[in-house]
Structures are given as structure tokens and as C-alpha cells.
Design goal:
Nucleotidyltransferase, domain 5, 5-stranded mixed sheet
Length: 257
């Protein structure tokens, strides 16, 4: 089986694949002070809780946007499966061309999202990831990653607003009773939900003018379902888009030694 690990700024997503099927998935909070022993203990516990036979896990792949954690998870994989993981980065075969000014700047998670989006939808396509940042990844008709856009994430924006406005408090991001809020909580919820949905539709419309009007859209990330319920341009939600992209990438590369 293949263990896919996506190390993000807020969460670490782990998925276990048997062939092409995602059979288990877990999520950890990102802790920049993890040691490899701590991560190994956590992953062992997740395997045990899910009744996974660790001896059947022989391969691993990692995408990481938190550089200090990469060697920690590399050592963890070596401890758990006695094999070094494949790390997505410059020189890794992905099946798509990276047509931007500096390919080394592109986050490994964005590459994985683009790979999965192209496999699922063909091109042109737009992959939107509602994570710490809201990223728009654009894939051409010929399967090229040509860039995109990055917007502050929903929760980051809310936290920044609350930190800068002394009379505002944290709220749960859910659909309010109406667009016009009648109290502070509903005002914030309306702005976060309908405001971001409107931003998404506007950005997709602008991107399509450059990428192609028939570009399909796929969304992923924790708030993808909620935002997609109000955004007119999102037609497909894939909660494990990044993990699926890592699986596709692993299949294109030789076994790490």
C-alpha cells in the first residue's frame, strides 16, 4: 500500500491507498515542533485505530509547504516502512508541464492538485483549494500548469479581522438566515460565506477569459462544500484531490532507493 502525506500550513493530511483506492485517510494539526518519534507514534496509533497492518505499507510520497517538517516526516516514513519516501519537488515527474516564470516556486500541493484535476477533468481546468490560503491553479488544454492566483484563506481572513477589530468575536462559518445580517454574528457569517463565494465566481470568470470559457472547476479543502453551495461556478468537489494527485505522481516515478 502507498502512504500519501500532504504537509500544509494548518493540517497534515494522510491517505492510504490500496492500488487506486483510498482506503483510509486522517488529518493532523500542523505542529512545527514535531519530532520524528512523535510523528511516528501518531501515525502508528492511526494505523492501529484503523486496523491497518503496517507491514503492508511499503511505499510513501510527501508533498510539503512547511520546510522544517519535511526531514521529520522523511525520517518517520523510514522508521515506519523501512523505505525513504518520494518527495515532490524539482525533478519529480508529474505528467504535466510547469509553464511559469520560476517552477521551483510552485508549491508541491498545487502541483498535486493540478495533476489530479487534469486526470479527473482534462483541460482546461481550474483547481481551487480552500486551505490556509485559497489558491486557484490553472491547467491548460494541453495539460500545462500555467499559474493561477492566491487569496487569503477564509479562516485567515476572519482571524485577521477579529484581531484588528476589538468589538468583533470569532464565529462559526455557516450559512446565516439571510444575506442581510441582523446581528454581528450573522453579519460576519454573511460576509465570509457570500463574500468568498462571490470572489470565487468573479475570479473564475476572469480566469476563463484567459484560460478558456469551457474550463471546468473542481474544489477541495475543508470549506469547499460550504463555499461551493453558494458559488455558481463550482460544479465538482473532491475532498481528497491533493492525495489523489500524489498517488498519480508516485505512479510516474521510479521506486525511491
Amino acid at each position: 500500500m502507498l502512504l500519501a502525506i500532504d504537509i500544509g500550513n494548518t493540517h497534515v493530511a494522510l491517505g492510504l491507498f490500496s492500488g487506486s483506492q483510498l482506503v483510509h485517510h486522517w488529518r493532523l494539526g500542523t505542529n512545527r515542533h514535531y519530532t520524528s518519534d512523535e510523528v511516528a507514534a501518531l501515525v502508528r496509533s492511526l494505523f492501529e485505530l484503523s486496523e491497518v497492518d503496517r507491514s503492508e505499507v511499503h511505499r510513501a510520497i510527501i508533498s510539503c509547504v512547511v520546510p522544517p517538517l519535511l526531514p521529520i516526516f522523511e525520517r518517520t516514513c523510514t522508521k515506519l516502512i523501512q523505505s525513504p519516501p518520494l518527495v515532490v519537488g524539482p525533478g519529480t515527474r508529474s505528467g504535466i508541464s510547469i509553464r511559469v516564470d520560476n517552477p521551483k516556486e510552485v508549491g508541491a500541493d498545487r502541483i498535486a492538485n493540478s495533476v489530479a484535476a487534469y486526470h479527473l477533468l482534462g483541460g482546461p481546468a481550474i483547481a481551487i483549494d480552500f486551505g490556509t490560503a485559497t489558491s486557484f491553479d490553472c491547467i491548460s488544454e494541453d495539460g500545462e500548469f500555467i499559474g493561477g492566483a492566491i487569496f487569503p484563506g477564509v479562516l485567515i481572513s476572519l482571524d485577521a479581522l477579529i484581531a484588528g477589530a476589538s468589538k468583533l468575536g470569532s464565529v462559526e462559518i455557516v450559512r446565516p438566515p439571510a444575506v442581510i445580517g441582523r446581528n454581528t454574528t450573522h453579519n460576519l457569517q454573511s460576509g465570509m460565506l457570500y463574500g468568498y463565494a462571490g470572489m470565487v465566481d468573479s475570479m473564475v470568470g476572469r480566469i476563463r477569459k484567459e484560460l478558456g470559457e469551457h474550463a471546468q472547476v473542481v474544489a477541495t479543502g475543508g470549506l469547499a462544500g460550504l463555499i461551493a453551495s453558494e458559488a455558481q461556478t463550482i460544479r465538482r468537489i473532491e475532498p481528497f484531490l491533493t492525495l489523489e494527485g500524489l498517488r498519480y505522481i508516485y505512479e510516474l516515478n521510479p521506486e525511491p532507493r
